[in-house]
Design goal:
- The complex is a heterodimer of chains A (about 300) and B (about 350).
- Chain A is an all-alpha fold and about 300 residues long.
- Chain A has a single domain, classed as Orthogonal Bundle (MetI-like fold).
- In chain A, about 70% of the residues lie in helices and about 0% in strands.
- In chain A, helix 3 crosses helix 9.
- Chain B has two domains: about 230 residues, P-loop containing nucleotide triphosphate hydrolases (Rossmann fold), CATH 3.40.50; about 120 residues, OB fold (Dihydrolipoamide Acetyltransferase, E2P).
- In chain B, helix 2 crosses helix 3, helix 2 packs parallel to helix 4 and helix 3 crosses helix 4.
- A six-stranded mixed sheet of chain B has the order 6-7-8-3-9-10, sandwiched between helices. Chain B has a five-stranded antiparallel sheet with strand order 13-12-11-14-19, with no helix packed on it. Chain B has a four-stranded antiparallel sheet with strand order 2-1-4-5, covered by helices on one side.
- With about 350 residues, chain B is of the alpha+beta class.
- The chains are: A mainly alpha (about 300), B alpha+beta (about 350).
- Chains A and B meet through helix 8 and helix 9 of A and strand 6, helix 2, helix 4 and helix 5 of B.
Chain lengths: ~300, ~350
């Protein structure tokens, strides 16, 4: 029999009419005004002192000031924890409504909820949690009055690192649901049946087929979740009032200038965040290249 | 003695009966095709043998063992899917070795078996490629090798050629048959393509609406269909209403034109309404003196179909198709001309409704 392996078709690029560029012009303009120029300003301002002179002091402080290092540590911790926790919870929920075979209306409800909740952040989210799980929150009261369980006596504190992580989870896991549900839908029933037919049990199927197939999506989602938490400011500020010094809050403090005022240092810290995200994305790209080598 | 036995198999989803009292005995090494239209229950029956569906009632015995309630991964049954179902994250070699790997076979044994299978399907140069780098035909051959690698007791093929183009389909079906014969493996092949079933099978089970219509060799199914459905589904067929004119002599009348049939109509009464069927290729213009039915006709239309020329003739008031091999050196009749066609009495079938 003749071998007829498929070869990718050569791309033929048609000449692009200049009018076509008009369609993307608003986007390009937006990107220049609100992404490239601010980024440029960020870089130049990082090397400027409050008097406007060139300095390396801001960048040097990034690795020498304990409060800045601690801010990065806290931000990375909360981002990693909520990315992992939210990712796992979101994955399990997406699994339950897709492959798990729960009733279809439940899937619609979860996807709709996730669409809303993944964008529910900032002051409204902080207020919602204060109203439910704060010291005077109604859930806190219900648990205490009807079940005799005092959350705060048991060590829970909404305004702590753990509390902030819990609040972040509220928008993290829905994002994971939104990303993973279509990926799980993409698992073909025949793969599972073929694996079973060949003698595999459920664990073997998931370890050898399903998870490797899903891994690029999972990695992509996790990095997105990490970035989502890493850049969050308003939620943390509204909930803790700056008591938990994550990087975004420290940057705000340097630029707002109530007590501290060193915009140059704030910009340098922002550059540090960009570097951390860039390293994360590079790591993701490397892992993705390793795990997606079987894709077109 | 039968190797695979399906006894009184019924499958219901709620009130809908998808497979109804299916009985079949399959000998070891036999190649059986389930043939029928979409929704006739052929794939459901196959999936019950694989263990993906559980019969509502009935038993499935394989080599003397009752496997009805066994999980799919506890049966040694290889299955080939229409969509290939190759694992996209594995190379050809890894796909073929998957079944042995999950059965915890040794690495040496897996490598040896994978190499054997790759040679069997003639894909030595592609062992380290991923499925997306292969054509549909190559993917299906890998799927075949993967199913065979575990030494299955039965090979199940669920419309394995449907997604392939015509040429690959024909060559791959020959290859599947050759490999099945070489290994002597028992196989069940599901298809809705009558040509595929006729060309590849030892026996064909024609199914309709969950019921077995007829079981027989391709020769029997094509030449001696027992029901109207089988006659219509397998091959082209002329079917017309007729009236019994002499049951003892096998004479029937179609719009005043008399036909003689070899089918037994002695139990019918004169004047009974029946339906007779004649396959288009059973009519001919030649050797009129040797035939039982010699019929005056008018040529209504001629259609060139490549290797065959289909001629529509009017006999009495009824239209019939006749097929003749294309021969560029023979002159075809003209449209509108008066001719005589003939067919044997064995060609005139009286079918059960």
């Amino acid at each position: 029999m003749a071998d007829t392996a498929m070869k990718p078709a050569k791309m033929i690029s048609a000449p692009v009419n200049w009018k076509t560029w008009l369609g993307v012009a608003p986007f390009l303009l937006f990107a220049v005004l609100f992404l490239f120029l601010p980024s440029l300003r960020l870089v130049t301002a990082s090397f400027t002192n409050p008097d406007g002179a060139f300095t390396l002091e801001n960048v040097a402080q990034l690795v020498s000031e304990p409060f800045i290092l601690n801010a990065y540590k806290l931000s990375i911790q909360i981002s990693a924890i909520t990315a992992l926790g939210g990712g796992l919870l979101g994955f399990l929920m997406a699994y339950a409504v897709t492959v798990g075979g729960l009733p279809k209306p439940l899937r619609s409800m979860l996807i709709t909820f996730s669409g809303v909740a993944s964008n529910f952040a900032g002051v409204p989210l902080a207020f919602a949690f204060v109203a439910t799980l704060g010291r005077q929150g109604f859930v806190t009261h219900i648990l205490k009055d009807y079940f005799g369980l005092s959350l705060y006596d048991a060590g829970f504190n909404l305004y702590s690192f753990a509390g902030l992580s819990l609040v972040y989870m509220y928008f993290q896991f829905p994002l994971m649901v939104l990303i993973m549900a279509p990926a799980l839908d993409g698992l073909k029933r025949e793969w599972r049946e073929a694996a079973e037919n060949l003698g595999a049990n459920t664990t073997q199927y998931w370890l050898k087929v399903a998870l490797p197939v899903l891994l690029p999506s999972i990695l992509g989602a996790m990095i997105l979740l990490f970035g989502n938490a890493f850049g969050a400011y308003a939620t943390a500020y509204a909930l803790t009032g700056g008591r938990i010094g994550i990087v975004t809050i420290q940057i705000g403090a340097q630029i707002r200038g109530d007590v501290l005022y060193n915009p140059g240092l704030g910009y340098a810290m922002a550059i540090g965040m960009v570097v951390i995200m860039a390293v994360s994305l590079a790591g993701y790209s490397w892992l993705q290249a390793k795990t997606e080598r079987w894709l077109k | 003695m039968s190797y695979l036995s399906l006894s009184n198999i019924t499958k219901q989803y709620g009130d809908a009966v998808v497979v109804d009292n299916f009985n079949l005995e399959i000998a070891k090494g036999e190649f059986i095709s389930f043939l029928g239209p979409s929704g006739c229950g052929k794939t459901t029956t196959l999936r019950m043998v694989a263990g993906f569906e559980t019969p509502t009632s009935g038993r499935i015995m394989l080599d003397g063992e009752d496997i009805t309630d066994k999980a799919p991964n506890q049966r040694t049954v290889g299955m080939i899917f229409q969509s290939y179902a190759l694992f996209p994250n594995m190379t050809v070699a890894q796909n073929i070795g998957f079944g042995l790997s999950v059965r915890k076979e040794s690495k040496e044994m897996i490598k040896q078996r994978v190499d054997e299978m790759i040679v069997l399907i003639n894909l030595e140069k592609h062992a380290h490629k991923y499925p997306y780098q292969l054509s549909g035909g190559q993917q299906q051959r890998v799927s075949l090798a993967r199913a065979l690698a575990i030494h299955p007791q039965v090979l199940l093929l669920d419309e394995p050629l449907s997604a392939l183009d015509a040429k690959i389909r024909v060559s791959l079906r020959s290859e599947i048959r050759a490999i099945q014969r070489k290994l002597g493996i028992t196989a069940i092949f599901v298809t809705h393509d009558q040509e595929e079933a006729l060309s590849i099978s030892d026996r064909i089970v024609v199914m309709n609406a969950g019921l077995m219509e007829q079981v027989g060799t391709p020769f029997e199914i094509y030449n001696f269909p027992q029901t109207q459905f089988v006659a219509n589904f397998v091959g082209s067929l002329n079917t017309v209403k007729a009236e019994v004119s002499d049951p003892a002599k096998g004479l029937v009348t179609v719009d005043g034109v008399q036909f003689i049939t070899a089918s037994d109509i002695k139990s019918r009464k004169k004047g009974d309404a029946i339906r007779i069927s004649v396959r288009p290729e059973r009519f001919s213009f030649a050797e009129i003196q040797k035939k039982d039915n010699v019929l005056d006709c008018t040529i209504e239309n001629i259609t060139f179909l490549g290797s065959v020329v289909r001629i529509q003739v009017k006999i009495g008031n009824s239209n019939f198709n006749m097929d003749t091999f294309n021969n560029p050196f023979l002159e075809l009749p003209k449209i509108g001309s008066k001719e005589r066609v003939t067919c044997s009495k064995e060609a005139v079938l009286v079918l059960d409704e």
